[in-house]
């Protein structure tokens, strides 16, 4: 399994993966068009040519980027792939010079483990 | 001269550089917010921390990739900065798996040097007009549409 920046050929699989979880109400849906236009946001976890996970770092401003569209195929969960994807995004954020990353998640223990702390949703809504 | 991917701290200078040429009608204007949201499309050339040139490779679809917002500070032109940015964009396009790259430009002879061919803009899907609608010249575009097959 390797983590890399997404390539054009990965998009159909990323689209399927994200919308599988979106259909179950676990995350927001993404159109194919949205994924292509924001492909630079995405890191993917690949096993051979198969995309088994993806996560996006979407920059909104000088000190504000969103971590979003994180998904790991069910058969591949519980192996640290999500953590590795998020760490790759955080590393990229640091190298770009970003100072603050925001995530909206139901996976609080994972977020805490990665160093995130809780934020008042009202503050976030104002910035979004 | 070093070509690098743009960083957050480059955005205010990229914004100034692009909009200097936009004010002259040579490029589409870009907001700061657009530059932040598409930061990773951009390459820059810096000299002592100052952005001398920038340019972007934007993906629109699996077979639709565009070079845009290419700008070189007037005092730095004719030194190969623009050429180096286009080369970096083309290399990145190959790496990401783009089959071709198109552009809409007033500098057709510059892009011909890289092998870009002049095409009728109507040969490109209408999707490429996504941001043209905010151009004051739209729909009477006087730029040249060009494409390079990789």
Give the structure's gist in a few sentences:
Chain A is built from five helices and five strands. Chain A is of the alpha+beta class.
Structure description:
The complex is a heterodimer of chains A (128) and B (150). Chain A is an alpha+beta fold. Chain A is 38% helix and 27% strand. Chain A has helices at residues 11-23, 32-37, 81-96, 108-113, 121-127, and strands at 2-5, 42-47, 50-61, 64-72, 101-103. Chain A has a five-stranded mixed beta sheet with strand order 1-2-3-4-5. In chain A, helix 3 links the parallel strand 4 (64-72) and strand 5. The longest helix of chain A has 16 residues, at 81-96. The mean pLDDT of chain A is 94. With 150 residues, chain B is α+β, with helices and mostly antiparallel strands. Chain B has helices spanning 11-23, 32-37, 81-96, 108-112; strands spanning 3-5, 42-47, 50-61, 64-72, 100-105, 117-119, 144-149. In chain B, the strands form two sheets. Chain B has a four-stranded antiparallel beta sheet, sandwiched between helices. A three-stranded antiparallel beta sheet of chain B has the order 5-7-6. In chain B, a hairpin with a 2-residue loop joins strand 3 and strand 4 (64-72). The longest helix of chain B has 16 residues, at 81-96. Classes of the chains: A alpha+beta (128), B alpha+beta (150). Chain A binds chain B through residues 7-9, 11, 33, 36-37, 39-41, 58-62, 95-98, and chain B through 7-9, 11, 32-33, 36-41, 58-62, 95-98.
């Amino acid at each position: 399994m390797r983590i890399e920046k997404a390539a054009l050929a990965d998009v159909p699989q990323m689209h399927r993966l994200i919308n599988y979880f979106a259909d179950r109400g676990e995350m927001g849906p993404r159109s194919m068009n949205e994924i292509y236009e924001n492909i630079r946001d995405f890191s993917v976890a690949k096993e051979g040519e198969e995309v088994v996970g993806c996560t996006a770092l979407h920059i909104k401003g000088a000190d504000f980027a969103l971590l979003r569209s994180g998904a790991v195929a069910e058969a591949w969960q519980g192996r640290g792939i999500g953590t590795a994807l998020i760490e790759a995004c955080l590393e990229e954020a640091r190298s770009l010079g970003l100072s603050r990353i925001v995530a909206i998640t139901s996976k609080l223990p994972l977020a805490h483990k990665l160093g995130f702390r809780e934020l008042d949703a009202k503050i976030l809504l104002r910035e979004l | 001269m070093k070509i690098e991917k743009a960083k957050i701290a480059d955005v205010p200078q990229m914004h100034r550089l692009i909009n200097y040429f936009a004010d002259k009608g040579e490029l589409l204007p870009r907001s700061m917010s657009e530059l932040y949201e598409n930061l990773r499309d951009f390459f820059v050339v810096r000299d002592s921390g100052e952005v001398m040139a920038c340019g972007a490779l934007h993906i629109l679809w699996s077979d639709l990739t565009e070079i845009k917002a290419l700008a070189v500070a007037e005092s730095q032109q004719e030194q190969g900065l623009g050429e180096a940015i286009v080369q970096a964009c083309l290399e990145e396009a190959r790496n990401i798996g783009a089959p071709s790259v198109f552009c809409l430009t007033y500098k057709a002879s510059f892009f011909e040097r890289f092998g870009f061919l002049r095409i009728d803009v109507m040969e490109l899907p209408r999707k490429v007009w996504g941001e043209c609608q905010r151009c004051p010249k739209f729909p009477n575009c006087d730029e040249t549409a060009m494409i390079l097959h990789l």
